[in-house]
Prior knowledge:
Elements: H1 2-18, H2 21-54, H3 59-75, H4 77-87, H5 89-107, H6 113-124
Amino acid sequence: MVKGNEQASEILRRRYYKTKRRYVVFAGSVLIQFIGVAMPSAMLGIVYVDMTREFRAEASQAALMLSLFRGIAFGGGVLGEMVIRRVGDFPCMIGGALGGSLTLLASAFAPNMVTIVVLIGVGTGS
């Protein structure tokens, strides 16, 4: 039975390689990676200037927000891997999306720069 499953899997793999679907999947993956990682990181750089003006904060405080966001988003994979193994993929994706969205929404009503650093840097980054 195992040999039959392996043969069926091999036939499906060959069919997949003959189609153009793999290029569409690759392009979609690259697009989602760009939207999820590159755009927020680049847009926080633009918001950085407005933050210093609006709250009359030092540049180092605004840079801390950006640094925490990038550091946690890109370096948090080690902790994220342990959580994903324990809980599963889907609950982690839903929890991360809801948590990031809620902290981003809450940061719109933040009264000072420290709150924004915590909400966007730590909350949205994770």
